[in-house]
């Protein structure tokens, strides 16, 4: 039944019998020996089969207290063979029903605001405006540090978390931290990972090597939501991460680029009275979370007129 459970051919009745057998205290001598399992040809377990094993076990089991005798039994199960590895993993869950499911804690920011968060391992995360950070508040421990980010955040990862810290950006990219400080911007049009120091490995959810980039300081990984391509680029780290110090650095930015920033950062809609205005360029530094100051600087620097009413911003030619 071990092999039948692994390849998905076991019936619900046989599954129940297998679980009842494992829950008995005196059946250790009846477990198959490693050689006996190895002599039976078994298919390679894929992700779908593994998920099916866990689903079947979850459907027919209920929480029970794990006696010491069953731990000895469990060790025998784990050693039987690679063919039954998925079943052994499922049995681990069966005999540890008290293990809590992930409970995601959420921290979010509104338009025009920022927030600094300290994670349980000492890692600090600075959240930009219009962003959300989530992490497991119950299972945060060595080997299982994971966070999810939508929006923009700057991570300063605690040294003891190096190599054990994963960031999931916008459900499109996975970032493995190898000891670092880096910026993640997961927005609708694409995802941007900028490395300030250390090293990170950025990849698509399929985890294939051909879709993985290892970044060095001063580099950026960019995922284009339109075509699904992941590319490496050189990055101006000061320009792209200065927001965490409440500064926004613009270098030859067009008003169209600045309008996109205003919409993401402040939730305001920007329109142009004349199309050619969107091509005007601006270079300078402004506060990252003060829209009125930004608009005032643009007005004086580009000789334009800007009217703001509620969440509507109109950019016009100067009179």
UniProtKB/TrEMBL annotation:
Give all residue intervals belonging to the FecR protein domain: 107-201
TM region positions: 77-96
List, for all copies, the residue spans of the domain called Protein FecR C-terminal.
Answer: 249-315
* Pfam families named in the record: FecR (PF04773), FecR_C (PF16344)
Q: What is this protein called?
A: DUF4974 domain-containing protein
Q: Which UniProt keywords apply?
A: Membrane, Transmembrane, Transmembrane helix
Kindly list the GO molecular function terms attached to this UniProt entry. sigma factor antagonist activity
From which source organism is this entry? Answer: Chitinophaga fulva
């Amino acid at each position: 039944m071990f092999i039948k459970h692994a390849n998905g051919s076991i019936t619900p009745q046989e599954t129940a019998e297998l679980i009842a057998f494992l829950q008995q205290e005196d059946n250790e001598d009846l477990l198959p020996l490693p050689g006996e399992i190895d002599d039976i040809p078994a298919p390679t377990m894929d992700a779908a089969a593994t998920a099916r094993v866990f689903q079947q076990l979850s459907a027919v089991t209920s929480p029970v207290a794990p006696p010491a005798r069953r731990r000895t039994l469990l060790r025998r199960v784990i050693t039987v063979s690679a063919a039954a590895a998925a079943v052994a993993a499922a049995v681990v869950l069966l005999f540890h029903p008290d293990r809590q499911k992930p409970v995601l804690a959420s921290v979010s920011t509104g338009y025009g605001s920022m927030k600094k968060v300290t994670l349980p391992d000492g890692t600090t995360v600075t959240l930009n405006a219009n962003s959300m950070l989530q992490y497991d508040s119950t299972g945060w421990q060595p080997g299982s540090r994971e966070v999810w980010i939508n929006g923009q955040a700057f991570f300063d990862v605690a040294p003891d978390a190096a190599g054990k810290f994963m960031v999931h950006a916008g459900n499109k990219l996975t970032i493995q931290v190898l000891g670092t400080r880096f910026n993640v911007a997961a927005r609708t049009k694409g995802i941007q990972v900028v490395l300030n120091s250390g090293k990170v490995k950025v990849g698509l959810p399929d985890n294939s090597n051909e879709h993985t980039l290892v970044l060095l300081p001063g580099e950026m990984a960019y995922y284009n939501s339109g075509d699904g391509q992941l590319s490496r680029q050189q990055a101006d780290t000061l320009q792209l991460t200065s927001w965490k110090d409440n500064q926004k650095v613009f270098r030859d930015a067009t008003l169209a680029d600045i309008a996109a920033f205003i919409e993401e950062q402040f939730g305001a809609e920007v329109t142009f009275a004349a199309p050619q205005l969107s091509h005007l360029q601006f270079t300078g530094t402004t506060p990252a979370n003060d829209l009125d100051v930004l608009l005032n600087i643009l007005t004086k620097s580009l000789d334009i007129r800007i009217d703001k009413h509620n969440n509507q911003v109109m950019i016009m030619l100067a009179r």
